[in-house]
């Protein structure tokens, strides 16, 4: 009869639910993975030895006391020691988590289907014990080794329940102090409003009664993470994460303090942020042939697509994981500088997943939901410029998401992506719908405005003109908001005339004033300021209306400096797009989609 898995072999293989070759004293599986190889027989013998030794020692001591009364003190001391030291029990688990299991390899898809189900079955993450002796035996596998080998079930915690990990003892992994200090603490995202602060002493949570093999040491990182994976994680924390955050918020960067704890809780999200780091690193050097980035990118597409296809009506952790995964894929395309329009497939998937999450958001911390909605609204609104308003309304934002976003505006939300101008961004879908009703199908001239069109135009214009930056933000953030305000006015004005305006007239004067105001604000903002990471959209909108070579040179220099400083691929592609626009002439914001189509540059300006 064949050897059954996890019923024989060493304790480490049994915990991992792996077949053990039973080679003693160290089996091949433990040797390969750098794990302590402890055998049940050894444990049993040790236990018997500990049980028998006190009795034997007591009996021997009694005989010696009968012969030598003066020896009783030393023998009592020896008896109390209990003989040999037993096997050290596993340390108490201070954190519990669930995560996506690693799917099998297969052909990489080109995009995510928007019609796929909106949830996934996320299995528990295998947490195997590590020791100091085995800490250095990290698998040096390929660059896609970040997804761990599946393991047995672990005690899970409901979504939103407070959880904690020991930053000073990462399950046997040795990290330098600088890297350890940069890791965020996930306890700040506990759903309970009464959750203690990070530094507060917490009572130890009891775990359910289970066989000893179920109690295992916690490894914060998956055991199969390679050296390349750790390098990418460090790059994400130190370079990629700051490049995504525009610095508007005075609190910590949500790309670190929100997404990294979620990555420790999910193989899928960990794989995606490593992918984002890899493609960002490749984009900074304009290396389209980077094999590490390519391997991670195709594997991430495969993993996310398989999880979405497997999903039914996912709830809780499943819905959250998939929604976050689809959103991260949008910014992977941004960091990569995608020119194939793949980001729109991810946006459609994220819209469905995030809308579903909002309807089942009980237990999800409000700050996490706020960030995810900001994340989506920012990307979706700024991507509308790539779509042709003449074809159809093509709204990328559902009613639920738009309502939630207006709630953020009502509480004066300042975000790491939308800064203090979320109110302005929410005018973009309205302008797009207005353009769909006004612009003629032949694209030569707009049709006559109806009374409803005029009222809607006036309402949007009034909202844009009345906008003021929040008083709590920095000068750079306020200036960036003013640049967006000028770009929104140009975007609105140009609905009225798709051809170059005459030299005189109210329309031409108003548009030129908006362009002049924008360049005044550009002069006030350093090209290497962090906030520039959010300015690709207004630069292109304003740039379409600039014919003066001196001003074009200003925008070229700013984009060049932004790419050298931030390194996101879409900044470089924005520069290419703007050059194509200037080369064609007679272009305004509503012709950008046609320039993209003719030059095969389908990008998101988020």
From TrEMBL:
Entry keyword set: DNA-binding, Nucleus
Record's compositionally biased regions (Low complexity): 53-68, 99-147
SUPFAM superfamilies per UniProt: Zn2/Cys6 DNA-binding domain
InterPro entries: Fun_TF (IPR021858), Zn2-C6_fun-type_DNA-bd_sf (IPR036864), Zn2Cys6_DnaBD (IPR001138)
Classification via PROSITE patterns: ZN2_CY6_FUNGAL_1, ZN2_CY6_FUNGAL_2
A GO molecular-function descriptor: transcription cis-regulatory region binding
One of the GO biological process terms: positive regulation of transcription by RNA polymerase II
Region listing for Disordered, in residue ranges: 50-163, 181-211
Main location: nucleus
Protein name: Zn(2)Cys(6) fungal-type DNA-binding domain, fungal transcription factor
Originating species: Colletotrichum destructivum
